[in-house]
Amino acid sequence: MRASGLAKAFGGTRALIDGELSLYAGTVTALIGENGAGKSTLVKILTGIYRPDAGQINLDGQPVQIHSLLDAQQLGISVIHQESVVFEDLSVAENIFITARPKRYGLIDWPSLRRRAAQLLAQLETPLDPDALLRSLSLSQRHIVQIARALSHDSRVIIMDEPTAALSHHETEDLLAIVRRLRDAGHAILFISHKFDEIMAIADRYAVFRDGAAVGCGAMADTNLDSLVSLMVGRAMAQIYPKLPASPGAEILQVQGLSRAPEFQDVNLTLKRGEILGVYGLVGAGRSELMQVLFGLHRADHGQILLDGKPVHFANPEEAIRAGIVYVPEDRQHQGAVLSQSIRDNIALPNLRQLSSCGITRNSRVTAAAGEWSARLQVKCRDTGQRVDELSGGNQQKVVLAKWLLSKPRILILDEPTKGIDIGSKAAVHQLTGELVQQGLSVIMVSSELPEILGVADRVLVMRRGLARGLFERSTASAPAILRAALDS
Amino acid sequence: MPTALRRARREFGLATLTLALFAVVALRFPDFASGRSLLSLVDDTALLVLLALGETLVILTRAIDLSMAANVAFSGMIVALLNRAHPDLSLWVLVPLSASIGALLGTFNGLLVWLLEVPSIVVTLGTMAIYRGAVYLASGGTWVTSGQMSASFQGLVRHLLLGVTTLSWLALLGALLAWWLLRFTNAGRGFYVAGNNPAAAVYAGVDVGRAQARAFALAGAIAGLCGYLWVARFAVAYTDVANGFELQVIAACVIGGISIGGGVGTVAGVVLGCLFLGVLKNALPLLGVSPFWQTALSGLVITVAVIINARDATPGRRRILEPRTLAQAGTPGARPSP
């Protein structure tokens, strides 16, 4: 299979500019790239969820059109999704044959369905019970169900979208063994992963994407980790991640032996006045869970949090906010902003006390504050009365940021602050954060984007599977060192 | 097999509870367990069973139909008016007509939900009032009483076959058909797929909106059929027929284990849920519980059922740490992997 010149734009954002990819039977090809490099868009085009604006896909040398999932299935292309696309309250057997239940006299033939499911599971050498409900299965077992589903329609091309992102070491080994069996049976496999050790272990070929274009491909035998990483991140980082000189002061926050089973354990960290502490790790490393405890959303089982040297216990976010800690969550659409309200109302929401007198909100103050902050953050809007859901992702994020900055926090926790937003907005967000840090704000920035972490953080805490794996000073932080700490080794 | 047994735990629990309640009442009032009393209890519950089966289809797709009772009233009123005006019109015309009117109203609900993507609770809240208003417009606020209905119109539901009323047989037949549909057809499995994970349904080739529209149309047809059955059974048609009954129907579904979140539940559960409500409704007056308390107690039972359902579905903390790490540290609160 060969895809070339694929392009796809959403509104003004060009997600894919020049997507190019070749897959070979009996070969595992690794697709490598940062978040936003165009990998997911490519997968969605190959499976008919998106239609490309330009480009061509050939299968066995013949050009093919993939307009729907059904088309993809009939051509023998299947995807194992990152987030399991399964039905929790249906059985394993039915989940496998969800698109094509075997029939007899026009009615579903349950005995045959169960028998064929059992055959497929045996073929994968897994002890799964075909009658078990998906609800009772672990994530890796759900992946196996999806693989069996792909086999059920004789897929020749199997795309695995970060299948190991949330799996344990042992589960990953089992999954990789299945991938090898599929490869040896002649399937062409596209393996998308951020974990270089897995890629090294399983892939025969690689393809690297960056900023929506293929920037390199070849045989794994002809490359090494360092050249793959530099292909993946290489770009003028200083432009997107402006780093203003910071002069960190005294320690303001100390976290000692913080644990919350089974999410994270024994985490220590310190945060100084006027610095950016980057927290890096793969998706599902327990970073957000840690931040939510610092913000009082959840309680820790063990350990303590010291603010200015005094132990604090936040029962709820309100207490954390009063102590000067604010948290900008990762999911801005659901947790960060009230999309159906205006920019002005969104900014006012957590700051009503400051904007009112005698318990009555002063509209003039609200308008003035909203105007000031949307100007400082360069929010592109008609006026501050515009609804937030009419703004682009980048501008929405600026509004979310503004509403928290108005409350003049001492500690700002940003969870994936620039995920899925355009490069211009990224720069604006980082520029402003940098200015505030110079004025004494302390920032904890959770990010899965290595260039972002390397670009703006003064120190970097690396997490893996709920454990703190290392702390790097800005001078010693390098991409290979951080990746090595964040990955399974 | 053990998996199947474990899955039917809820149905066994509900059956046991219903039988226990029944036994308690029967011990004090032996008449309660007589054949005649039992048959009348089933006959009383038959309409609830039929409507709950229709509602089940809708709820399985993660939607809800609040307009079923109003649909009953409208369809019932139309056939009652026709019967009054043309007493000779055969039931072979009237019964299919009643079901068709209902199906039409149900389809209207379904199309609004599917094509306009309006939440079903809003759509059917609106159509509930429209259909109820339409009963008034059709009848001009007048009643059609038993004296104005033909004997055959009223007789069918009471006709005994092997000592059991046609109405009861219809409920049984409805349950079997619903079970067959949900178990052996792609359309039926599609209801589960659509409700269980709407975001993933597209990967299974199921259009959630279309599945919902289908469920609404079927529920409407059942409500329409029940329209005739209701006015014939109670020998009267007026604007307020079955007023508020939609809540009992939804309650029976919830007690029977149909998840309001969609995608979960069985026909056996719903039928048991209806029987439980039926026994409760018949037993409370016998036990001397005042009508005020009866309403409150029914409400309590429904609330408890919802809480039990919700507890079953509460997600836990996400497991990130490897089990090995947890075991080493012996952290309290650590749970084995799911």
Could you please describe the fold and organization of this structure?
The complex is a heterodimer of chains A (489) and B (338). Chain A is an alpha/beta fold. Chain A contains 18 helices and 24 strands. In chain A, the strands form six sheets. Chain A has a six-stranded mixed sheet, with helices on both faces. The longest helix of chain A is centred in the middle third of the chain and has 16 residues, at 169-184. Chain A is globular and about 75 Å long. Chain B starts with a helix and ends in a 9-residue tail after the last helix. Chain B is mainly alpha-helical and 338 residues long. Chain B has one domain (3-317): ABC transporter involved in vitamin B12 uptake, BtuC. Chain B is globular and about 75 Å long. In chain B, the strands form two sheets. In chain B, strands 1-4 form a two-stranded antiparallel ribbon. A two-stranded antiparallel sheet of chain B has the order 2-3. At the A-B interface, strand 8 and strand 14 of A face helix 1, helix 9 and helix 15 of B.
In short:
The complex is a heterodimer of chains A (489) and B (338). Chain A is of the alpha/beta class and 489 residues long.
